[in-house]
Each structure stands twice: as structure tokens, then as C-alpha cells.
Write a structure and sequence with these properties.
There is one protein chain. The relative contact order is 0.24. This protein has one domain. Strands 1-2 form a two-stranded antiparallel ribbon. It is built from one helix and two strands, in the order E-E-H. By secondary structure, it is α+β, with helices and mostly antiparallel strands.
Length: 47
């Protein structure tokens, strides 16, 4: 299977740690670690 094929990727429901909006993430959220929606992730991403 090609790793670039994202069609079958499993997504998990989460709540953004910044804005509180529900979102979906491509990994199982870990308790104690922040989860960010797409917009908030852009703000927190380190360059």
C-alpha cells in the first residue's frame, strides 16, 4: 500500500485546545497533549 494514499486514513473526533471547536484529526488523541484544529494549528506551528 502506498503511504501517500490518504483515502483510507482513519480520523478521530477531537476538540481544539485553543478555540474549543470540534475537529477531526488523523491520529488518536493522547490525553494531556493539546489538539488543534486546522486554523489554530497554523498559528501554533513552529517554523
Amino acid at each position: 500500500m502506498d503511504n501517500r494514499d490518504r483515502g483510507d486514513r482513519e480520523f478521530f473526533d477531537a476538540v481544539c485546545s485553543d478555540c474549543g471547536q470540534p475537529c477531526k484529526v488523523p491520529f488518536k488523541p493522547t490525553e494531556g497533549r493539546p489538539i488543534y484544529c486546522r486554523d489554530c494549528f497554523k498559528k501554533h506551528r513552529k517554523f
